[in-house]
Write a structure and sequence with these properties.
Elements lengths: L1 H8 L4 E7 L3 H13 L3 E5 L14 E2 L3 H10 L2 H20 L4 E10 L4 H15 L9 E4 H7 L10 E10 L1 H14 L3 E4 L1 E9 L2 E9 L5 E11 L5 H8 L7 E11 L9 E4 L8 E6 L2 E5 L3 E3 L9 H14 L11 E10 L14 E5 L5 E5 L5 H12 L29 H8 L3 H11 L3 H10 L15 H9 L5 H8 L2 H4 L1 H19 L3 H14 L5
Parallel strand pairs: 1-2, 1-10, 2-7, 4-12, 10-18
Antiparallel strand pairs: 3-6, 4-6, 5-6, 8-9, 9-10, 11-14, 11-15, 11-16, 12-13, 13-14, 17-18
């Protein structure tokens, strides 16, 4: 699969569009552009979703806190952003039902005066979602809330307000976008780093790149180039022209994972106002409890680390709102993502950060898109492709198709399909549920591999991931490294870093046999995977 991808990149073909960056935005642009009829190539220096796109809060949301700000400040811009994001929330849930779900969230209220205020705000949130509404907000008594959320702090609790947002599996979503784009004809290459941009008569014509796995260098020619590198957008723009003004600042958001006893399986908690004005979520995710996030200015680095101070901050809020104890030893994994807070360098006040995203075209023709959030990735991609084709040099293109387009794995997905996997392949129910929700209508392919190739064993005793997934992701999802499999094709590293670390040797053995690695390559892969799966633990 990779040999074919590299051959296409090195074929001296001039692509209509080269996308730099394989996160949510880049892969979303690839899907949009390829389905409109453009010849598309995408390169990512690490793996798809290795950066911010796999380090989110796992929510598909309109932004409750932004709505509050819009109302308080009578800010129509923020109001419209929330309304638009709620629409896109509905589209994502519809187009990738195997990877997403509606999730009820409750906000505990410890003052009667706050009840009507919060309820009115959340009913407006419902109203703004229009026909894409996924649930109705309501007030629940403290007694009923405690029955459903027994760990919630009882002292002073008056009531809770419930509302709905969406939840999804971000790393799987990004890989699914990459493979959906490939199915549409895009050439999608991970572990290919851009080392320079090429120009003719001052106009960008492509990029010089290096294969991070082999060290081989070559050039890719393209009529248009989009910089979709998230926090690294400034670095690519400065590669294009050294005097490029910065357009972003980095903000670090960390998350921790606790075991399932800290949250019900189908309901989350929103803490709407921390001491320093942040919002903290405690959510069920992949059978565990996800807590996040922080919002701290930071330097932009490749693989951000998690500080003990930030872990302690999140644990403190769990203690404040729960009647059960929690300690540092309860943390099963932790990760940090860098959110690019962007601004338009041509604006009069460049200190004012954009609320959503910006698209900039430099004199060379380089188009940069940065900012935004997972919820609006599809619309951001549509805007970026509209910008690419605005000059009229591409004829015969289809209109944007992504608003109503099912992603790979969703076309034949049936909500109760896990039962079929149990019946047809004899899989344990938890494994069947995991495969069904991870691969959608492709799950039977994984299950058949498990049966035919004797790869139905679990990679970690207490988790549903199985050996067949390793080979499936190599053959069908461009997994090249052990860390690609454990950190992004699966969610094991996020769910339980220690279990992921223990699974490294078996994954490396499977990949070595499949790809024919020598001992040096296997050892290098094991070392890298150990580094990537032991963050903060």
């Amino acid at each position: 699969m990779r040999a074919e991808t590299l051959a296409k990149l090195q074929s001296n073909e001039t692509f209509d569009l080269l996308i730099i960056g394989g996160g949510a935005t880049g892969c979303g642009i690839a899907v949009d552009a390829a389905t409109r009829g453009l010849k598309v190539a995408l390169v990512e220096r690490y793996d798809f979703a290795e950066g911010t796109s796999s380090r989110s809060t796992k929510l598909v949301h309109g932004g409750v806190r932004y709505l509050e700000a819009a109302v308080k400040k009578l800010d129509k811009g923020q109001y419209d952003l929330v309304r638009h994001a709620l629409h896109e929330r509905g589209a994502l849930l519809r187009n990738a039902p195997h990877l997403s779900r509606p999730l009820p969230l409750i906000t505990p209220v410890y003052s009667w005066l706050q009840v009507p205020y919060l309820y009115a705000g959340l009913k407006l949130y419902d109203l703004l979602s229009g026909k894409m509404n996924i649930g109705h907000s309501k007030v629940i008594s403290a007694k009923k809330a405690k029955a459903r959320f027994p760990m919630l702090r009882s002292k002073g609790l008056k009531a809770v307000v419930q509302y709905y947002d969406g939840q999804f599996v971000d790393c799987r979503m990004c890989v699914t976008l990459a493979m959906t784009a490939e199915r549409a004809g895009a050439v999608m290459a991970n572990h290919i780093a851009v080392t320079g941009l090429t120009h003719e008569a001052g106009k960008i014509t492509g990029a010089d790149v290096e294969d991070a796995l082999t060290g081989e260098s070559f050039s890719i020619r393209a009529k248009k180039v989009v910089n979709a590198t998230g926090p690294f957008a400034d670095a690519i723009r400065q590669m294009d022209h050294a005097d490029a003004k910065p357009i972003l600042k980095g903000s670090s958001g960390i998350h921790i994972l606790l075991d399932s006893s800290f949250v019900p399986p189908d309901e989350g908690l929103l803490i709407p106002q921390t001491d320093d004005g942040r919002v903290v979520f405690i959510l069920p995710w992949q059978g565990q409890a996800l807590v996040g996030t922080t919002d701290t200015s930071c330097e932009v680095v490749d693989h951000p680390t998690v500080s003990e101070e930030d872990i302690a901050y999140l644990l403190d809020y769990v203690k404040r709102y729960f009647d059960i104890d929690v300690t540092r030893a309860d943390v099963k994994s932790a990760w940090s993502g860098i959110r690019p807070l962007v601004f338009n360098p041509e604006a009069k006040d460049t200190a004012e950060l954009a609320r959503d995203h910006v698209i900039i075209e430099d004199n060379s023709g380089l188009i940069t898109i940065s900012g935004g959030k997972w919820t609006t990735y599809r619309y951001m991609a549509e805007e970026a492709v509209d910008k690419v084709i605005a000059g009229g040099e591409f004829a015969g293109l289809k209109p944007c198709l992504t608003h109503d387009m099912k992603l790979l794995g969703a076309e034949g997905y049936v909500a109760g399909g896990a039962g079929d996997l149990v019946r047809d392949f004899g899989l344990p129910l938890d494994v069947a549920e995991h495969l069904h929700h991870s691969y959608g209508d492709r799950a039977p392919v994984v299950a058949e591999m498990a049966r035919e190739e004797g790869l139905a064993s679990r990679l970690a005793a207490a988790h549903p991931y199985i050996e067949a997934e390793v080979l499936y992701t190599m053959r069908h999802e461009a997994a090249q490294r052990v860390a690609d499999v454990l950190c992004r094709r699966m969610t094991l590293t996020h769910v339980d870093s220690r279990a992921a670390n223990a699974a490294i040797a078996r994954v490396a053995d499977l990949m070595t046999t499949e790809a024919g690695w020598d001992s040096a390559r296997r050892d290098a892969e094991v070392a890298l995977a150990e580094e990537r799966t032991t963050v903060a633990l």
